[in-house]
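Human:
Focus on the backbone:
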Amino acid sequence: MTEPSANARQRLGRIVERRPFGSGQAGRTGVYVVRDVDTGDDYTFMYADIVTEGFRTIRTGERVRFIDDPDRPSEATYIIRLDLPEVEAYYR
């Protein structure tokens, strides 16, 4: 059986939680949880998995597209934000 392509593993989800832990500058690093809208399964990822230009930020409630990682079943990778806010509104 062949491994599915990245396109076949693309999922849609919503960020449901951020679990902070004490690393990073001033302890601001965290693990994020994305819930698959089709299956209801939860996947975790780090900010480094967010694919974007500039700062890698994301907020609870945002819609995302991601790839589930077959080597790490409960983890997501290549997180792409779908709800990009206006820059002025985002950084108030």
Remarks:
- The two ends are 51 Å apart (CA to CA).
